[in-house]
Amino acid sequence: MATVDVLAIGYASDRVASTVTLLRDGDVTVVVDPGMVAHRGAILDPLAAAGLSADSVTDVVFSHHHPDHTLNAALFANARYHDHWAIYRDDVWESRDAEGYEVAPGIRLMRTPGHTAEDISTLVTTDSGLVVLTHLWWTAQGPADDPFAVDDEALRASRRKVLDLGPALIIPGHGAPFAPDPDTAA
């Protein structure tokens, strides 16, 4: 089973930082959304505390291409980079659709448009159940309606798609992990 560790909890107010998450499954080490943080140590220090270096990260996943989710990608020189339509490494661009792509046996990608047309979510099978890393929610508290969504109807449909999976935990784009309940905005 894969493991999930939040390296940095994001926020969006007068300053902005993405939630940055570490996933491990066998020999695969993934960082999701290494974007804006107050300083690079907010990513690198907890990574080191987990016994890892930036060079040991094998894969980086971008939920979407806004700078607050991608800014620190270059920290991981040995990684493959995943987005909605390709895998990138050095000067190689390997086209593939993210829908259903398996990064590791317990880590796969799913298209979840709404915030942007190209958003993807990362699905992680853990001992505690399914964990979904996504920008469909900013935080557990909202906003119920994403003020920057390019397609409100697609956002609601993607939220329903995620909630129908019965996740044990959702890790939102700019907040702490939360367990969805019947009041979670769909």
Give me a quick take on this structure.
This protein is 13% helix and 32% strand. The protein has 186 residues and is an alpha+beta fold. It has a single domain, classed as Ribonuclease Z/Hydroxyacylglutathione hydrolase-like (Metallo-beta-lactamase, Chain A).
Describe this structure in words.
With 186 residues, this protein is α+β, with helices and mostly antiparallel strands. It has a single domain, classed as Ribonuclease Z/Hydroxyacylglutathione hydrolase-like (Metallo-beta-lactamase, Chain A, 4-Layer Sandwich). It contains three helices and 14 strands. The protein has helices at 41-49, 67-70, 152-163; strands at residues 3-8, 11-12, 16-17, 20-25, 28-32, 59-61, 80-82, 86-89, 92-95, 102-104, 107-111, 120-126, 129-134, 169-172. It has a seven-stranded mixed β-sheet with strand order 1-4-5-6-7-8-9, with helices on one face. The longest helix has 12 residues, at 152-163. The chain is globular.
